[in-house]
């Protein structure tokens, strides 16, 4: 999917990951030692291995911690209040917004799936989570 | 290896003065530091300056030479940026340069102008301390990041918003006698609990304010201090630095600060002391939960027990280990780039007996300053000791 603003320069690696996630093909990077990371990476941040492979992100993860933000940055002023969560997918954790819930009903331990959404303020793509 | 003495300290009032430029703030702090130290400006051999958001707040890069000029010092100058630990890093490098004999006299400090950005603008500026791609673009704010850690702490170790409120109450009380503090008023637990939510579970009174201000230190070698008969009774005897993965989600543990632990361990070993020797500490309480995580990382509280330390009185002014007798970032204010240097200034005065709160720590000989960047992806710890107490 192209960016809504054609003049915006993409962030190679990151926007490619969002593209993949929108196609249901989100991934994480893994080195032979089993260390995991998110792109863009030329090497493993733990051990320096350049032998990184893309592994499919598990379909669901569990909310490891969350917060409901009432005082946002200007880029999210129309989105607030919103729930930000760190979701543990097993081999890797990802930070994003819980998008299909009343923020006050979000809880640690909930099972969620990745779903790229859009900021209500800027229409930029945002890493989101929905309940399963 | 030379010892390092604190020959002079200077602080501006911390607060809401949006029209004042950081060069003016830093000039004021350095004036005080030079005045009290009796060190001539001409003896300064290098300037180490911490600042975080000058490009955003003042459209100003390349601040080293600008700040040397503001201080009236003709010496090479470097700006250090490590988010909220910027001047902690500046101090660490300055200490090592004096120790290795490179310099006898250095000017160290930092400044930040923040309130001219307004709350939304400053929230945006502070957020750049996090990973822009993987955290900020998901809507994570700086208070939000510490809120994620607070929730993780509650889930693992227990604790409550009331426990955190007790940290804020303590630090506000400590700031009552600090004439440079942004807030010199007490608050109650109830007021803290009733304040608007910033990012749950953290409320307005869990957060340090946005602040403008500057701090300056004149550090000298032990030999210079003796030769010039300076009144410099406090030495920086230990320095340590720690680092961690940038994004909070990449840390092994969401409710601990290993970078602070590493920095503390290095500083303790460097000074030849351990946590049980620490009589008082200034720790980086940008949020109430940050003080809890800091005292646990520095071994001033057991893991899982830091949360109750303020409520039970262990870290209050007359407790076993008073924490943030200056009022901390919470009440004293947090002009980001100035904070690390201001902590050294406060600990120096507390140990020298010249601080309004020195009466609470009359026998203290060893103090500690902990400065943290972002969600503690970077941290410095310094140990200060009274010389020949």
From TrEMBL, chain A:
Q: Which InterPro entries match?
A: ChsH2_C, ChsH2_Znr, NA-bd_OB-fold, Thioester_dehydratase-like
Outline the extent of the ChsH2 C-terminal OB-fold domain. Answer: 55-115
Q: Which Gene3D superfamilies match?
A: 6.10.30.10
Q: Cross-referenced Pfam families, in alphabetical order?
A: OB_ChsH2_C (PF01796), zf-ChsH2 (PF12172)
**Protein name per UniProt:** Uncharacterized protein
Q: Where is the ChsH2 rubredoxin-like zinc ribbon domain?
A: 30-52
UniProtKB/TrEMBL annotation, chain B:
Question: One of this protein's Pfam families, by short name?
Answer: Thiolase_N
Query: One MF term from GO for this chain?
Result: acyltransferase activity, transferring groups other than amino-acyl groups
InterPro entries associated with the record = Thiolase, Thiolase-like, Thiolase_C_2, Thiolase_N
Q: Can you name this protein?
A: 3-ketoacyl-CoA thiolase
UniProt entry tagged with the keyword Iron-sulfur? no
What organism does the record attribute this protein to? Natrialba chahannaoensis JCM 10990
Indicate the segments forming the Thiolase N-terminal domain, all copies: 5-223
Picking any one GO biological process from the record gives: isoprenoid biosynthetic process
Q: Which UniProt keywords apply?
A: Isoprene biosynthesis
- Translocase in keyword set: no
Q: Which residues form the Thiolase C-terminal domain?
A: 240-385
């Amino acid at each position: 999917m192209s960016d809504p603003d054609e003049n915006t320069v993409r962030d190679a690696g990151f926007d490619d990951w969002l593209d993949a996630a929108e196609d249901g093909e989100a991934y994480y990077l893994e080195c032979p030692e089993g260390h995991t990371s998110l792109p863009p990476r030329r090497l493993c941040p733990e051990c320096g291995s350049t032998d990184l492979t893309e592994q499919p992100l598990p379909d669901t993860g569990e909310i490891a911690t969350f917060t409901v933000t009432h005082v946002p940055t200007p880029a999210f002023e129309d989105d607030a209040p919103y729930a930000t969560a760190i979701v543990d997918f097993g081999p890797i954790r990802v930070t994003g917004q819980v998008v299909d819930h009343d923020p006050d009903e979000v809880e640690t331990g909930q099972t969620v799936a990745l779903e790229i959404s859009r900021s209500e303020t800027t229409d930029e793509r945002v890493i989101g989570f929905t309940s399963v | 290896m030379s010892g390092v003495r604190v020959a002079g300290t200077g602080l501006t009032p911390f607060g809401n003065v949006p029209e004042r430029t950081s060069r003016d703030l830093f000039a004021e702090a350095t004036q005080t530091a030079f005045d009290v130290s009796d060190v001539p400006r001409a003896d300064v051999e290098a300037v180490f300056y911490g600042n975080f958001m000058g490009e955003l707040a003042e459209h100003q890069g390349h601040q080293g030479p600008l700040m040397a000029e503001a201080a009236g010092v003709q010496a090479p100058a470097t700006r250090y940026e490590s988010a909220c630990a910027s001047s902690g890093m500046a101090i660490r490098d300055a200490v090592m340069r004096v120790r290795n004999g490179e310099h006898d006299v250095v000017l160290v400090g930092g400044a930040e102008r923040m309130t001219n950005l307004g709350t939304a603008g400053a929230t945006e500026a502070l957020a750049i301390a996090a990973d822009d791609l993987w955290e900020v673009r998901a809507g994570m704010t700086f208070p939000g990041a510490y809120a994620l850690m607070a929730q993780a702490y509650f889930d693992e170790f227990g604790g409550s918003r009331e426990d955190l409120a007790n940290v804020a109450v303590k630090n506000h009380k400590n700031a009552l006698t600090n004439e440079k503090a942004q807030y010199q008023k007490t608050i109650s637990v109830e007021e803290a609990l009733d304040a608007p939510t910033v990012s749950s579970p953290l409320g307005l009174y869990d957060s340090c304010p946005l602040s403008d201000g500057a701090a300056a230190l004149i550090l000298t070698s032990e030999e210079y201090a003796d030769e010039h008969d300076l009144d410099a009774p406090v030495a920086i005897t230990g320095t340590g630095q720690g680092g961690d993965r940038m994004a909070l989600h990449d840390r092994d543990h969401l409710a601990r600060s290993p970078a602070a632990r590493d920095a503390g361990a290095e500083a303790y070993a460097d000074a030849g002391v351990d946590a049980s020797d620490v009589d008082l500490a200034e720790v980086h309480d940008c949020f109430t939960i940050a003080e809890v995580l800091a005292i646990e990382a520095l071994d001033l509280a057991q893991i899982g027990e830091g949360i109750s330390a303020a409520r039970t009185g262990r870290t209050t002014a007359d407790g076993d280990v008073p924490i943030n007798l200056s009022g901390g970032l919470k009440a004293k204010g947090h002009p980001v780039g100035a904070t690390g240097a201001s902590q050294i200034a406060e600990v120096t005065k507390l140990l020298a007996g010249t601080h309004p709160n020195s009466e609470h720590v009359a026998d203290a000989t060893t103090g500690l300053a902990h400065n943290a960047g972002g969600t503690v992806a970077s941290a410095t710890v310094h140990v200060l000791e009274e010389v020949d107490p």
